[in-house]
Write a structure and sequence with these properties.
Elements (H helix, E strand, L loop, with lengths): L8 E4 L9 E4 L3 H13 L20 E6 L3 H10 L6 E6 L2 H9 L5 E4 L8 H10 L5 E6 L4 H9 L4 E4 L4 H10 L5
Parallel strand pairs: 3-4, 3-5, 5-6, 6-7
Antiparallel strand pairs: 1-2
Helix pairs in contact: 3-4
GO molecular function: protein-glutamine glutaminase activity
Pfam family, one: Response_reg
Protein name: Protein-glutamate methylesterase/protein-glutamine glutaminase
């Protein structure tokens, strides 16, 4: 894992071994779901292998943010991520920092605690919704009350994980949304 990232999503394509097996596109994972549906309706035409141009740049890691005011919670969540997941991890200790990292293009996926100083997780979700910003937000909180869970989903979070975080809780969510294969 690296400390910084870019706002690109990898889109896998099948190609001969001598060519790159991926392309980079500048769209969020939310837009990718829409693109996937469009491609199923009208697939791209077949491409001759001689027309493919090899890519020389390595794949870009997926930028993620772990936002939690607790150093221990950030460490536990980092260890719960798949070790072979190609991501650039940025850390935020409050909601304002998390929102800033998103605006810098460092948060295609955001793991967000609800109770933080300066700006709560709820306020971050409201800001993302108000500004129509697209990112996968996975709320990670000790507040497991049904009201909290329904509120974060209404504000756009795709999932809710109860603390303490385990790999068994994270992995199915990442797979469900195509963030980890």
């Amino acid at each position: 894992m690296r400390a910084h990232g870019f706002r690109h999503t990898r889109l896998a394509v099948r190609a001969p071994r001598s060519f790159a097996s991926f392309i980079l596109a500048s769209f969020s994972p939310f837009e990718r779901r829409s693109t996937d549906r469009t491609l199923k309706k009208s697939p791209l035409p077949a491409v001759n292998a001689q027309e493919l141009i090899p890519l020389t740049d390595p794949p870009m890691p997926l930028p993620i943010v772990i936002a939690d005011d607790s150093l221990l919670a950030r460490k536990v969540l980092t260890k719960a991520l798949p070790p072979d997941w190609d991501v650039d991890v940025s850390y935020a200790t409050n909601g304002r920092e998390a929102l800033g990292l998103y605006r810098e293009g460092k948060a295609s996926v955001m793991f967000l605690d609800l109770t933080m100083p300066d700006m709560t997780g709820y306020q971050v979700l409201e800001a993302l919704q108000h500004e129509d910003l697209n990112t996968f937000v996975i709320v990670v909180s000790a507040d497991v009350q049904p009201m909290a869970q329904s509120r974060v989903r209404a504000l756009g979070a795709v999932a809710f994980i109860a603390k303490p975080v385990t790999p068994e809780a994270v992995l199915p969510i990442l797979k469900e949304y195509g963030l980890y294969v």
